[in-house]
């Protein structure tokens, strides 16, 4: 699916071209995460409108060390289009758009990344490495190929982010929006691979479709997390704190 919707800033295509060129030269794998990845998947709906229009772009990058991470940042800065920010993970594109480069891979120690330049910065975001295995290769535009985090992976990252910073209510809003329209966006997959769930829930419930959708998301996260025992335990613990966002249905799919 080529992205030509006005929900995306045209500059995103330019940013991806630069990142793709410089990351490829350094043999660094990357994929789109965050709100841009969410909107990519849900934009297949003709009437889709983001709950929040994003003005920045998150890209997960697989690096071995802070040295390699710094090389990628420096190569982007040398294009003349990016400026450094006082946060080590952030660059500013043409003085207007924030680009967050989220490092994962061998740079992590027990799931935590610590950067030291230009100041100490700690990123405690396990999940990027395992989600890299499930990122989807897409034709972002006529000139740009990219890999995009799965929609279920976005839910996973937002569960972790909200658990770390409960004041980030936008993560809960995003999870809820995904569940509300998940069935419409992925109904073919639900019917083909998860039809049994259509009979599991009470069709007279007003939120019947959302319960089914949340359960499907849980099933898909189970596939992702089966080899990640510690992260699986963490997500189960988070979901047991029922916040009335269909978390119990996600938990059912994750633990069945």
Note down, in words, how this protein is organized.
The structure is a single chain. A hairpin with a 3-residue loop joins strand 4 (90-93) and strand 5. The mean pLDDT is 91. The protein is 46% helix and 16% strand. It has two domains: 11-149, 2-Layer Sandwich (Beta Polymerase, domain 2), CATH 3.30.460; 163-255, no CATH class. With 256 residues, the protein is of the alpha+beta class. The strands form three sheets. The protein has a five-stranded mixed sheet with strand order 1-2-5-4-3. A two-stranded antiparallel sheet has the order 6-7. It is globular and about 60 Å long.
How much strand content do the residues show?
Answer: 15-25%
Q: In this structure, how is the largest beta sheet organized?
A: 5 strands, mixed
Please indicate the count of domains. Answer: 2
* pLDDT averaged over residues: 91
Structural class by secondary-structure content: alpha+beta
CATH topology of the largest domain: Beta Polymerase, domain 2
Could you tell me the radius of gyration in angstroms? 18 Å
What is the helix/strand order?
HEHEHEEEEEHEEHHHHH
Q: What CATH first level of the largest domain would be assigned? A: Alpha Beta
Roughly what percent helix?
40-55%
Notable features of this structure?
256 residues, alpha+beta, Beta Polymerase, domain 2, 2 domains, five-stranded mixed β-sheet, two-stranded antiparallel ribbon, 9 helices, 9 strands
Helices and strands in order, then pairings?
Elements: H1 11-25, E1 30-33, H2 34-42, E2 56-62, H3 66-77, E3 82-84, E4 90-93, E5 97-104, E6 112-115, E7 121-124, H4 128-132, E8 136-139, E9 145-148, H5 151-164, H6 169-193, H7 208-225, H8 229-239, H9 247-255
Helix pairs in contact: 2-6, 5-6, 5-7, 6-7, 7-9
